[in-house]
Structure formats: structure tokens, C-alpha cells
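Minutes, project check-in
Item: structure for the 435-residue chain
Input as provided by the requester:
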Amino acid sequence: MKMKFVTIFDPKKEINFASKFNVALIASVIIPITSLICLLVIGLNWGIDFLGGTELHVKFSKAVSVSEVRTVLNNLGFDKNQIQQFGPIENNELLIRVERSAALKQEEIDSLKLLLQKDASLGENPQISFDERTGNQMLVILKEPQYKEELGAISVKEALTQQKQILKNIIENQAKLELRKTRATISDNASTDNAIVEDEAKGGLIRYTVHFAGVSNKIQKELENKFGAIEIRKVDFVDSQVSKQLRSDGLLAIIYSILAIAIYIMIRFDMSFAPGTIMALINDVMIAMLVFVVFKLEFDTPSIAALLTIVGYSINNTVVVFDRIRETLPNESKKPLSLDEITRYVNKVINDTLSRTINTTLTTLFSSLAIYFFTNGVIKTFALILSVGITVGALTSMIVAPAAYILAKKYFPHSNNSNTTTTGYTRDDKAKGVV
């Protein structure tokens, strides 16, 4: 039995898409500008990949749900977090990512500084230097302690030990900050004896490097209180400089991909097709970015992958439309085609490819929507953005790209004219292997 291909629209009844070209061009300018303004005013909800943070590979002694771990992290103040299963479920292993990588908050630093200033035994004007990029270290500069010169080195050592003990007491007991614990040997118990290290005194001042318990220590302590013994198998840290570089690389990847595609279109077709390609892809990307801003979706490295996927999918539809335009425009005419004639041919091409565009778009869209509704975590955002991009990409390929092509023909009618014998290939040419 001979099967008939399903067509959604009757090819004999043309829809006048050309009448919407001016509206499409105006919208293709307004939408990216609106999206750009929202990005500048509201900003993106940057993910941990682009903010810097800490990643822990944790093995639990029993089965633990992601929601339970997330509750613990939220109580600790790590509201921006990512948790995902690592390996088989029966291994009880999770990857935990948290945003803030510094050991202290600004209010904790300010409180500690006030406490040091109140203690007269530490001298006047104690100085504190803390850089969030260093994570877990603080530099404290105090006046050199007084000691009896006749006792020599013994007195100096005792004075430093006493000053260090006062500093340690203020940090632990008054400021309630947790110092780093270390072991001298494997058999020893962990202690904070080596958490404060002094440098040689210079100019009447002495510098103490204070090591605080890191983010991983805080998380480990709370997880053990909640779920019992756990094993931290790996800790990775991404500072703010690396995260900024990741942002730049992601943005450049999108820009370079659009430029490379535009160059390919100019070589594959002609200059008149390039503006439509660029406008369509920019709209696809900017509308997807607008979704991130409006719905406060977390923008991370999988989001970059989603945008690049949208670009690739959209250009596939655009190339199909452009290729049909090149085939449909007559090449044998001695008289150049008028703009109205080109517009009629382009409108016919859009109608001819309409069923194909809708069929392929819906096929992919159903898959991405299934991922969105039946999964959780990072992949859910990826599927949502991909679904939006697929839908928008189909519209821009059908309307925005052809409209920009007509606009290019209007103002540059003689640039690589498609109705000459030197440009464009017919189906007969392709059958002969010309292309």
C-alpha cells in the first residue's frame, strides 16, 4: 500500500507571508534591544560556574535525598547550590556545588575587627586584610608585644605566644568563628594549634596569617550532624577570576559561531543572504536570553550549550529556506527581476517549505518538552531553553531571514544577483553533481 506524506498546509493555497515582512523586521530590531536592556538593567541569574564556588564529592553512609541535602545547605546560607547524583544510586554519592567560596561574610569580618579594637592588650589600630579570592585566610597586623629585653629570646617567644593566644581566644570564643583544624600525625586528634602563623616583626608590627575552616569543613560538619558519618572524596575550588574568564569564553563562543555561520552563508550563497542569517540568529539567542532574565533561570555552562544548540538548529532551517530560494529564482532571465517579483518567489518558497519546517520543528520540540516535563536539575533548564529556541528558530527562519533578504535586495539589488547565470544552482545542476 502506498503511504501518503502528511501535509499540514495545502501547497496550492499560498499564505501571504510577504505582507508581514515589515512587521517582522521591526520586531527583529525591537526584541533584541528589549532583551539587551533587560540584561543590563535586571541582569542574569549567574550560576555557580560563572560566579566561582566550591564543589564537593561526598559519599554518604546511607541513602540521602537531594532535597534533604539542599535544606542543610540553605540553612547554612548557601542558597545558590547545585546537587546531582554521582554514579549509581546505590553508591550514595553526590556532587555538591555552592556559590560562596569565602570562609567569612563581611559582617563577620567587621565584627571581628571591632572586637580586636576593644582589646587593649593587642595595641592600637589593629589591621585586618581579607580577600574573598583567597578563600579561607585572613591577615591580621598587630603592634609587636612588649617583652623584657634581659630575658632575650625566651621572653620574645612567650610574648608572641601570649599575643597569639589572645587573638585565638577572640576569634573562637568572642567572634564565634571556626579556625582550621589540622593533625600533626595521622594518629593525632585534629586541633587549631597551627591555625594562626606569625611572621617576623618589622617596624614594630607583626603579621599573623589566620586560617579559617573552609566552606567544605562547614558543609561536612553540618552534613555529619544531620546524616551521620560522611566521606569527602574530592574538593574543587573555582575563584572569581576563573569564573569571569568562563563568562567571556562563553560569550565569545556564541559570537564566533554566529560570525562563522554568516561567513559560510556568504560563501555558500551570496552577500544578500548574510544579513538575514545574522538577524535570525541574533533574535534566536536574545529571545532565549530574555527567558533567562524574565523567569530568573540560572545561567550556567549548560545554558551556553543550549544557546549554541539553538544556533545550530536554527541555521539548519534557514539554509533549507535559502537553498530553495536560490533554486526557485529563475537564472535564465536576461532582464533583472524586480523586487516585487523576487518577493513573490520568496513567498512561494516559504509556503513550499512550510510543512517541512513545521514537521521537523514539532518532532524536535516534542522531544525537548518530554525532557523538560520528566526530568529535574540542570537538564530541565536546558530543555526549556531549547524548546523556546526551536520554536523561535522556526519563525525567524521562515519570516525574519527571508524578510532581511528582501531588504538586502531592495538596497543592494546588484550585489551577487541571484538571477544571473553565474550564481545559484538548479535541481538539474545538483543532479549532475555541480554542487
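Outcome recorded: Residues 418-424 have pLDDT under 50 and may be disordered.
No further action items on this chain.
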